[in-house]
């Protein structure tokens, strides 16, 4: 097989591109390069023989492609591995300095801006907190901080910045009641085009946008432990909980792009007085519920966002919130498993690592107490990317657009 032939990857999904992969030598060469980069990202390091075996390409063709990627600065060669039959193998891994992406996460209470390298390392970051997001304030934040973040790069590295990715909730104007904003405070988002405005500020870079929960799911799948599972449901708990669905190793957007809107799942919420009501998961397992518990105790709710890595002082309100959230999550997971027998359910969020561990463990216990007749058990595990998942997913958008083989799935409408 030569470089002008496309190929399947055993055990992996290889979606066809609307651009017509395989119709010309240049298109297939670029596709083969992307597949090889995706394989190396998934396996961390691979030799040329391993790549040839996984792809079905000839060793000669694999060598030509990998040498080119190495010369382009996208791959780095490791130490020769001796002790095997035949020639010593040289493992190749992604070069962290091979490419960079900028990620802007626009949240309901805070915004994060990160400069990320080719292996998801955060080189620089900035954070902005607020009572609610306003378009111009976010553009001022980006205009001020992006030059500061990219100043850490050399001239050569700066030329390897692939673009800006924005991760944000859709239809922000619909959240005024839950965010308790003044009436009409978020109306400006109805007509504000984030990608156009950022593109005018930074015309040298393409700007891409994706739903924040989908971006977080993409980050877990691409850079986190999600890559170990063929199918999983993903739950990201921010101000409001969101989610994503991964099937056959790829994000599944659904016919409208709204698959994984797990926060909208109805569950039974139990109140302190013993009553219960049918509510969406978003009104049980979301951080704004903890914020309201703190305010009811006379504590500043803003402490959640100002101190995102240490919630030890929240004590009893935090314990009550974990209990409420775990109860809702367990009900939602049981409902998910009745539809798709996921291998795993991954839970992550904008909270400290110890809080994530407590929440996941409590959720496992609550799930075990639910009637499982007819359901296939799934692992309930912690995410591995953490509170930066949405920003990392945003920064990954231009990188995936340039180098990944299955990027289209993020942008299906």
Q: Can you give me a brief rundown of this structure?
A:
The protein has 413 residues and is of the alpha/beta class. The protein has helices at residues 25-43, 48-55, 59-71, 135-150, 155-158, 176-179, 194-201, 212-223, 287-296, 303-306, 315-337, 353-368, 389-403; strands spanning 75-77, 92-94, 100-106, 110-117, 122-129, 161-168, 207-211, 232-237, 241-247, 250-251, 266-270, 276-280, 344-349, 379-382. Helix content is 37%, strand content 19%.
Question: Can you describe what's shown?
Answer:
It is a single chain. The chain has 413 residues and is of the alpha/beta class. It folds into three domains: 25-94, Arc Repressor Mutant, subunit A (Orthogonal Bundle); 99-215 and 391-408, Nucleotidyltransferase, domain 5 (2-Layer Sandwich), CATH 3.30.420; 225-384, Nucleotidyltransferase, domain 5 (2-Layer Sandwich), CATH 3.30.420.40. The protein is built from 13 helices and 14 strands. It has helices at residues 25-43, 48-55, 59-71, 135-150, 155-158, 176-179, 194-201, 212-223, 287-296, 303-306, 315-337, 353-368, 389-403; strands spanning 75-77, 92-94, 100-106, 110-117, 122-129, 161-168, 207-211, 232-237, 241-247, 250-251, 266-270, 276-280, 344-349, 379-382. The strands form four sheets. Strands 5-4-3-6-7 form a five-stranded mixed β-sheet, with helices on both faces. Helix 2 (48-55) packs across helix 3 and helix 4 (135-150) packs across helix 7 (194-201). The protein is globular, with a radius of gyration of 22 Å. Mean pLDDT is 88; it is low at 1-23 and 407-413. InterPro entries: ATPase_NBD (IPR043129), ROK (IPR000600), WH-like_DNA-bd_sf (IPR036388), WH_DNA-bd_sf (IPR036390). Pfam families: HTH_24, ROK. Residues 1-25 are annotated as: Disordered.
């Amino acid at each position: 097989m030569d470089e002008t032939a496309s190929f399947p990857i055993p055990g992996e999904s290889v979606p066809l591109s609307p651009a017509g992969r395989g119709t010309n030598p240049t298109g297939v060469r670029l596709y083969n390069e992307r597949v090889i980069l995706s394989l190396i990202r998934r396996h961390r390091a691979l030799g040329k023989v391993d790549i040839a075996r996984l792809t079905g390409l000839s060793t000669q063709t694999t060598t030509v492609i990998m040498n080119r990627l190495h010369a382009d600065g996208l791959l780095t060669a490791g130490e020769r591995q001796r002790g095997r039959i035949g020639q010593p193998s040289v493992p190749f891994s992604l070069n962290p300095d091979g490419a960079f992406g900028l990620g802007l996460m626009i949240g309901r209470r805070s915004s994060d801006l990160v400069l990320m390298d080719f292996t998801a390392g955060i080189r620089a970051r900035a954070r902005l907190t607020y009572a609610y997001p306003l378009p111009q304030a976010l553009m001022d934040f980006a205009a001020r901080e992006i030059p500061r973040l990219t100043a850490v790069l050399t001239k050569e590295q700066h030329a390897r910045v692939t673009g800006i990715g924005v991760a944000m909730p859709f239809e922000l104007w619909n959240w005024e009641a839950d965010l308790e904003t003044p009436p009409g405070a978020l109306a400006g988002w109805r007509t504000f085009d984030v990608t156009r405005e950022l593109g005018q500020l930074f015309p040298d870079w393409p700007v891409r946008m994706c739903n924040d929960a989908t971006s977080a799911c993409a980050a877990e799948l691409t850079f986190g432990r999600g890559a170990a599972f063929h199918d999983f449901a993903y739950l990201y708990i921010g101000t409001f909980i969101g989610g994503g669905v991964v099937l056959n190793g790829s994000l599944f957007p659904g016919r409208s792009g709204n698959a994984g809107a797990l926060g909208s799942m109805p569950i039974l919420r139990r109140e302190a007085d013993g009553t219960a009501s049918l509510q969406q998961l978003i009104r049980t397992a979301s951080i704004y519920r903890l914020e309201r518990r703190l305010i009811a105790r006379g504590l500043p709710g803003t402490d959640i966002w100002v101190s995102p890595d240490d919630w030890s002082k929240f004590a009893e309100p935090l314990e009550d919130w974990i209990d409420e959230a775990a109860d809702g999550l367990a009900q939602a997971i049981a409902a998910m498993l009745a539809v798709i027998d996921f291998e795993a359910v991954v839970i992550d969020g904008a909270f400290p690592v110890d809080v994530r561990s407590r929440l996941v463990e409590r959720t496992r216990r609550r799930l075990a107490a639910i009637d499982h007749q007819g359901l296939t058990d799934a692992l309930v595990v912690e995410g591995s990317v953490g509170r930066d998942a949405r920003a990392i997913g945003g920064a990954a958008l231009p990188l995936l657009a340039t180098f990944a083989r299955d990027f289209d799935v993020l942008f299906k409408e």
